[in-house]
Model the fold of this input.
Amino acid sequence: MDSKEIQELLKLINRLELAEFKYKQGDLQFSVRTKYSRSGMEGMPSYIPVPSMNPVATASSPAAPQPPTAKAPTEHEGDGGTPANTNAAKDNLIEIRSPIVGTFYRSASPDKPVYVKPGDTIEVGTVVCIVEAMKLFNEIESEVAGKVVKIVVEDASPVEYDQLLFLIDPNG
Done:
């Protein structure tokens, strides 16, 4: 199966609104989960990864990475090893990170209000931003409740996978 066939297969999966698709032929094996999943993934950002022109697949390599969960602060952020906000570790702040590569937007459009701003109290499932990837606008929902302490990324900035976006105080 070449990359063009894989791309066509991914388009078909999306068009048919399949929740999950698994493929295995010889050493090539992958699975895809979509926004149509019935296993509690409805609120999660949805995207379909597009394979590179020279895909390398092994028997154990999945095609679709799983969205990360909110993590406790670490010593370094996922953006090149720069030190994380030292106050975040002291104050037990929770990080919201980007589940995909794309462009970060604080609101649905330039004429709409921002989803959240520092000082806002949010609940689990609150949309905090949008990350645009390949012309798809993925709403990023909070997996934690608390008070928005800091928005780390500038509006309309590119973001990497697992890059720190927000700091949340769960006691706020």
Remarks:
- The CA atoms of residues 97 and 164 lie 4 Å apart.
- The beta strands are 20-25, 28-33, 94-97, 102-105, 121-122, 127-133, 136-141, 146-151, 157-159, 164-169.
- The two ends are 51 Å apart (CA to CA).
- The chain has two domains: 1-66, 86-169.
